[in-house]
Amino acid sequence: MQRPVIAIISTGGTIARQAADPRDTVDYAEIGTSLGGGDLLAALPAAVRARFDVRGIPFSSCDSVEMTLPRWFELAGVISHALATQPDLNGIVVTHGTSSLEEAACFLDLVLDVACPVVVVGAQRPASAISADGPANLFAALLVASAPQAAGRGVLVVANNEIHAAQEVTKASTYQLETFRSPDFGPVGMVEANRVLFGRMSAYRRHIGWPAGYGAGGAIPRVDICYSHAGADGVGMRAFVAAGARGLISAGMLPGMCTPAENAALDEAVARGVVVVQATSGYCGGVVRRQDLCQRGILAAGHMRPRQARILLTLALMTGMDPAGMQALFDMP
Q1: Catalytic residue among 11, 14, 98, 280
Q2: 223-330 domain in CATH 3.40.50.40?
Q3: Would residue 95 show up in a list of annotated catalytic residues for this protein?
Q4: Would you kindly state where each structural domain of the chain is located, as residue ranges?
C-alpha cells in the first residue's frame, strides 16, 4: 500500500519547544530550547512514522507571539510553492504556536485556494513535558492531512483529536489541552480510533485570495483592535487613527456595543475614511447589521472573532474591496 506523502512545515511554538524540567509547562517559552521538524517527527513511534512519507520543510523557529502578517504571507508562499513543485503531495501539515494559531489558520484560509488538505496544528505542553500533547496532535494532523475527505474543505485546525474549520475556531484556555473550540458551530469532525470522521460541512468559506501586486516587503495597511469596557473614553481609538490606521475592529461589549465616548470616536474615524468593523469581545455569538450601525457607516463583524476580523479587513483593504463587498464576507454565518 502506498504511503501518503505529507509535507510538514515547522514554524516553532510550544509544539517545538522543550524544557530542562519535565514538570515545566509554563517557563519553557522563555527559557527552553527549540526543536526542528525532524525532532517532532522523531518523537512519534516508528510504527506511526512508517505510515507516512514525510517531507520536512523548515520555515522558522519563532514563538507565535512573534508572527506577523508578512511572515504569514511568506508561509503561504512556501505552501503554494511546495504544492506547485511537488504534485505528489497528499497534504500539508503546518506546526504553529497556539497563541496566534487561530489568526494564522484564518489568514491561510483566506489567502490560499488549494484542493490539497492544509492542516495547522500546535500543542499546549512542550515536547519535554509529562504527557506532552504535541506527538498525539501531530499524528492526528497527519491522519487528517492524508484523508481524501479532508480535501476541498479549506484550512483545518487539529487539536485534542478534534477537527475545526479555520474561520470558526478560537483558543479558549491558557493551559488546558481542550483549548481550541468552535463556539458557535462546533468542530467539523474528529479523529477517533485512528480514523478521520467528518460530521458536517462548513456551510460557507470566506475567501479573498492573494492581494494583487503584494510581494515581499510590500505595504500592509494598519488595522487595529480596540477593546471596549465600561467607562472607555475612545482615546485608544483616536490614537490608532492618528498612528495611521486604515481600519479599526471594535471589540465591543456584548452584543457588540460601545460606550457613548467610544461611539463618538468611531464616528470620527468613519468621517476620516477609516473602515470600522463592530465585533464583540464575547466568546460566542455574532454582531448583526442593526439599524444604528448601518446609519453610521459601520460594518458588522458577524460571527468572526476580533482577531480574525482584523485579518479579513486587512486583506480586504489590500485588494481594494469596497465596504459592501467586505460586509458580504462578514455576513457569512
Answers
A1: 14
A2: yes
A3: no
A4: 5-198, 223-330
- Cβ distance 94 to 116 under 8 Å? no
How many C-beta atoms lie closer than 10 Å to residue 49's C-beta? 15
What is the number of alpha carbons within 13 Å of residue 299 lying toward its C-beta?
A: 27
What radius of gyration, in Å, describes the C-alpha atoms of the chain? Answer: 20
pLDDT digits (tens, 9 = 90+) for 236-273: 999 999 999 999 999 999 999 999 999 999 999 999 99
Residue 201: other Cβ atoms inside 10 A: 12
The per-residue pLDDT for range 189-246, each reduced to its tens digit, is: 999 999 999 998 775 689 999 998 887 677 899 999 999 999 999 999 999 999 999 9
Q: Among 3.40.50.1170, 3.30.365.10, 3.40.50.800, 3.30.43.10, name the CATH number for the domain at 5-198.
A: 3.40.50.1170
Indicate the pairing of strand 195-198 with strand 223-227: unpaired
d(CA 164, CA 155): 9
Chain centroid, CA 17 distance in Å? 20
Closest listed residue to residue 201, CA positions, set 261, 276, 150: 150
Are the CB atoms for 120 and 162 separated by under 8 Å? no
Identify the residue whose cell numbers are 510590500.
218
Q: How many CB atoms lie within 10 A of CB 233?
A: 13
Supply the pTM of this predicted model.
0.93
**pLDDT for the residue numbered 47:** 84
Q: Cell numbers at residue 229, please? A: 469596557
Beta carbons within 8 Å of 23's beta carbon, 6+ residues apart: 129, 130
Task: Report residue 276: phi and psi, to 5°.
Answer: -110, 130
pLDDT in the model for residue 207: 94
In this structure, what C-alpha cell is assigned to residue 170?
478560537
